[in-house]
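User: My collaborator sent over this chain with a note saying "see what the structure looks like." That's all I know about it. Can you take a look?
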Amino acid sequence: MSRIKKGDEVVAIAGVAAGKTGKVIRVDLDKHRAYVEGLNVRRGTIKRSEKNPRGGLVDREAGIALSNLMPFDPVAKKGVRVSMVMDGDKRVRKSKASSHIFD
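Assistant: Without extra context I'll predict from the sequence alone. Here is the result:
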């Protein structure tokens, strides 16, 4: 189980986006990267096609290393470390700062 999942609110702790928050769009566990809405935006090109007759430039989120992200705790109002704990028969993520359950 990953400490960061799709749909989580996260805080960037390193890199160009340090200190900014955003929502995780997708997580690529093979490459250890997360794609966060509004963070690490890169400009790419789209080739002309029937669907896109003009082609052109688009802004896309590029991946951020999972080690540079922390889950955002709404109770503590900051990025926190998480631990995995058992809640009945289910593993859940728990904030180390405020004991907030994420799952």
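A starting point for your reply to your collaborator: The radius of gyration is 17 Å.
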